[in-house]
Write a structure and sequence with these properties.
Strand order of the largest sheet: 1-2-3
Membrane topology: Multi-pass membrane protein
Keywords: Antiport, Cell membrane, Ion transport, Membrane, Transmembrane, Transmembrane helix, Transport
Number of helices: 33
Subcellular location: Cell membrane; Membrane
Main location: membrane
Structural class: mainly alpha
Largest sheet: 3 strands, mixed
Number of strands: 5
Protein name: Multisubunit sodium/proton antiporter, MrpA subunit
Distance between the termini: 70 Å
Length: 795
């Protein structure tokens, strides 16, 4: 079905968070502690806008809108609305509404609350642009913008070293993956000739049938795996918990970490259902699921426990997305929705407990049920959904994904076992977060625990209740949300019919769910012992990817420092050698490798006086080489410059000759003045070997420039530019001297810049020659050079 063209309202909806980011600090100053309410209207209105697409998308409709951004490059600012992008847009804007409210209560009175709101809105806009982006380059721009804005949010408390480290780590890992994705996008465009996602999805087999499938697959997975924290890139996500809790709740529920999953789901019709896809994704996803849940059990910090289960959940989503079995993909979509709701609620619960009790350590919390009843209710509802218990959306998701893994062709038994162990450990963490802090004897906490303001519990309550409501109306949920999203994954319109209770009491999913719950309860009862065992095993292993990241960064710093000491060691001679080696390579290597060497020219016929000028230039070169002092060499160098000026004059370019004479005269005079003010040895005392090396470099540069000029002059002369200046110099600029018109009118700004550079150079020279000296110069009667001049000699 061809996407329908819609108006620019959707484009404005994508840009609205960026406008809100601009006004957020202003509103924060105006409304003081109540700025969250008017600011939350922005994502709320965005949610309402995209809710209008639910009905047409549910019957298979797709929509596009675009405006030209860089038309000469074929880059448009365009959006593509289908089931997948609509679901993500609703999650981002809907959860984002409550995140803004939650941030208003969590950071109440913070002096930088306005700046925090700005960062949140930038983050929200970047994620909306990513999931709605139709043009591949605009998608990449928003992809990288999520990395930059997450860096700002994670490092918000920049005075803490842990925050700065976590922010840099997230930026390096996800930014590096973004570069891989960029390379993949360029390959996709070259292979398919398409820059729009909608056009790419219309021809899904082009990449699979090309010889470039493998590199595109690797590059796309590099971007997705780093963004969605798949093993072994999982370590940055738990460290991102150094960010304030509103960031953690938004990051883990609906935004950045889901970006990689979104990309894999979006590219499933294009890259999926191949042997490579159905092998690599389940493998890495399954390992990430197990690693995340095991590391979550090890933690005692509420946020870290939830963070590692997010890693595990992302692994589960990647594992299911790697299937070619439609039921497994349906389970992935359902779990995506369920996870966004219960994880956003639980993170806000953890933050509220920390905010009102003063600690997130689960071993120091207990008996908060009576002190925080609303937060407790929200935690229970979200925890039950995370545990996969009825009647919550998490339960339906677990049943469907078990249908998918059990019916998975080939490796279904292995995938089922991984899913059962992972879900059982998820239940352990859900129970630890939702039960441990609220039951048992009341503990002494750093703060007197009490219920937070409405801004803190509105989000957890609404999200957990929505998770319950969606499960109680399963048919509507399937028709409006799951079916359209699944259609985007499989590439064809698909309708599904969800049920809260399974059709058969005795069926593989029911049996697997029973085993999962039983195993989870047993492990929860042995949580302390299990935590100690995992801690001991991790201690014995010692090294991990997180430590490896620090070692890699330290190695990069050491290598870069060594290179800097080599090329920036403070010696002018080193700088000059490196500069001219680079110059020689730039002109010679392309000519030799690319076959751009000129043809051997014929010996020209000149008059005796023309040959005499060339002879003078050669004699000037010899004079430079045999000069006894540097000052003599500089004066001798002027011979060549004057010879070039005479050549210009002989060949009918008096203006160039005059310019050359002026430049050469000034250069000789200025260099002579500078040299007389420096205490230099009469002659360069370099060894013969060093002289040969520098001589070779000089000859290479000269040969490269000469060959380049010769190759250029052997090309057919294009008179288009000359004819243009000849025709328009008088009629437009009212000048008959074409050279003057070019300098003053056609390239006047460039000429102004050159004048400024020359003037600045003159001022620098004036500063050099006005240096005050203190003692006699051993070469003559003039005073000894000053300390500043000595420092110049040293370099």
């Amino acid at each position: 079905m061809t996407p329908a063209v819609i108006d620019d309202t959707t484009l404005l909806a994508v840009l609205a968070p960026f406008a809100a980011a601009v006004v957020a600090p202003i509103l924060t100053r105006w409304f003081k502690h109540n700025a969250a309410w008017p600011l939350a209207l922005v994502p709320a209105l965005i949610f309402v806008h995209f809710a209008g697409f639910i009905s047409p998308v549910s019957i298979g409709g797709t929509f596009v809108a675009a405006v030209a951004w860089a038309p000469s490059y074929g880059v448009n600012f365009s959006v593509y609305v289908d089931g997948l992008s609509t679901l993500f847009a609703l999650l981002i804007s809907g959860i984002g509404t409550f995140i803004i409210l939650y941030a208003g209560g969590y950071l109440k009175g913070h002096p930088q609350q306005g700046r925090f709101f700005s960062f949140l809105f930038l983050f929200m806009g970047a994620m909306l642009g990513l999931v709605l982006g139709n043009n591949l380059f605009t998608l990449f721009i928003f992809w990288e913008l999520t990395s930059i804005t997450s860096f700002l949010l994670i490092g918000f408390d920049h005075l803490r070293a842990a925050s700065r480290r976590a922010a840099i780590q997230a930026l390096v890992v996800t930014g590096g993956g973004g570069l891989l994705l960029l390379a993949g996008i360029i390959l996709i465009i070259n292979v398919t000739g398409q820059m729009e996602m909608s056009a790419l999805l219309a021809s899904p087999d082009v990449i699979k049938d090309s010889g470039w499938y493998l590199p595109i697959f690797i590059l796309v997975l590099g971007g997705a795996f780093t963004k969605s924290a798949q093993f072994p890139f999982h370590f940055w996500l738990p460290n991102a918990m150094e960010a304030p809790t509103p960031v953690s709740a938004f990051l883990h529920s609906a935004t950045m970490v889901k970006a990689g999953v979104y990309l894999l789901m979006r590219m499933h019709p294009v890259l999926g259902e191949t042997a490579l896809w159905t092998t690599v994704l389940p493998l890495f996803g399954g390992v990430t699921l197990l690693v995340g849940t095991i590391l979550a059990v090890r933690q005692t910090d509420l946020k870290l426990m939830l963070a590692y289960t997010t890693v595990a959940s992302l692994g589960l989503l990647v594992m299911l997305t790697g299937s070619s079995y439609e039921k497994a993909l349906e389970g992935a979509v359902l779990y995506l929705l369920a996870h966004s709701l219960f994880k956003g609620a639980l993170f806000m619960v953890a933050g509220t407990i920390d905010h009102e009790a003063g600690t997130r350590d689960v071993t120091k919390l207990g008996g908060l049920r009576s002190a925080m009843p609303i937060t407790f209710a929200a935690a229970c509802l979200a925890g039950l959904s995370m545990s996969g218990l009825p009647p919550f959306i998490g339960f339906i998701a677990k049943e469907i994904l078990y249908y998918g893994t059990w019916g998975w062709p080939g490796t279904g038994l292995v995938m089922t076992g991984v899913a059962v162990v992972g879900n059982a450990l998820m239940l352990v963490i859900a129970a630890a977060v939702a039960i441990k802090p609220f039951f048992g004897p009341k503990t002494d906490t750093p703060k007197h625990a009490h219920e937070g303001p409405v801004l803190l519990y509105a989000g957890p309550v609404v999200l957990s209740v929505v998770g319950l409501i969606l499960a109680l109306i399963p048919h509507t949920t399937g028709v409006l949300f799951i079916g359209p999203t699944l259609s985007s994954l499989v590439g064809t319109f698909t309708q599904i019919d969800l049920h809260l209770l399974p059709a058969k009491i005795i069926s593989p999913p029911v049996i697997l769910s029973t085993i999962t719950v039983a195993l989870g309860v047993v492990l929860f009862l042995q949580l302390d012992r299990l935590r100690a065992m995992i801690a001991g095993a991790l201690t014995a292993i010692g090294w991990g990817p997180d430590k490896g990241f620090d070692q890699a960064i330290a190695g990069i710093v050491s290598v870069s420092s060594a290179i800097t000491r080599l090329v920036q060691g403070g010696k002018m001679q080193t700088y000059m050698v490196l500069t001219f080696v680079a110059a020689a390579g730039a002109v010679l290597v392309p000519a030799i490798v690319g076959g751009g060497l000129p043809a051997v020219p014929q010996m020209p016929v000149h008059t005796f006086y023309e040959w005499s000028i060339f002879l003078v230039a050669v004699l000037g070169l010899v004079a430079v080489l045999i000069a006894k002092t540097r000052l003599t060499a500089i004066v001798s160098l002027g011979i060549q410059g004057f010879a070039v000026a005479i050549i210009f004059l002989l060949f009918g370019a008096p203006d160039l000759a005059f310019t050359q004479l002026m430049v050469e005269t000034l250069s000789v005079v200025i260099l002579a003045l500078v040299m007389t003010r420096l205490n230099l040895s009469p002659r360069d005392h370099r060894s013969s070997t060093a002289s040969m090396v520098t001589g070779t470099i000089a000859l290479s540069v000269g040969a490269g420039i000469g060959l380049t000029l010769m190759a250029i002059t052997q090309q057919p002369f294009d008179r288009a530019l000359s004819d243009f200046f000849t025709e328009y110099s008088n009629s437009i600029a009212y000048g008959r001297n074409i050279v003057n018109v070019i300098l003053v009118d056609f390239r006047g700004i460039d000429t102004l810049g050159e004048i400024a550079v020359v003037a600045l150079a003159g001022l620098c020279v004036l500063a050099l020659i006005r240096v005050h000296t203190k003692q006699a110069d051993p070469i003559g009667d003039r005073p000894k050079a000053s300390k500043s001049a000595k420092s110049k000699e040293a370099v």
